[in-house]
# Entry
Amino acid sequence: MAVSSTAGLVFTVRRKTPELVAPAKSTPHEYKPLSDIDDQEGLRFHIPVIQFYRKDGAMEGRDPVKVIREAVAKTLVWYYPFAGRLRELGAGRKLMVDCTGEGVLFIEADADVTLDHFGDALQPPFPCLDQLLYDVPGSGGVLDCPLLLIQVYIFIYKYICTCTSILRPTYIYTLFTVFLDGAPSPRVLHSPFH
# Structure
């Protein structure tokens, strides 16, 4: 449990134990080298992303955390390298993805705060990102760590917040939203790993 304060804002965050979400179906175990562009030393860090949503009336009676967890598992079938781990190959430190299917880190949490409490602070730099984006011990590295950490917060008054730490956010987020919308498969099959 963490208590946060920013410009007079105090709220409590309650997190469940982090878990690994694996692909919904079996995926190939193979190695995929990163391109020279993606393999640059200066790009070996995680990018934090925070997004806020109002709870959709169409979700009435459904657990939004379960829906998101299932969408992540379905997404990882198509983008299975994200469920793997980065490894260095040889003395040149060339990165490759070991497509292990281990999964991505997923944390369910709630916070006793509303979006209105944040006021106009919902633009970068977000003042409470450090309190909302939990640094799971042992997951902050680039090598041999999950490539994606997703945290789903339920705020009071039916707001949902997702906090993510990811190496390459644009590709998987596009596909992830397709599955959240209920599509059985992606419309476009493109990935930095294919």
Notes: The first helix runs from residue 64 to 78.
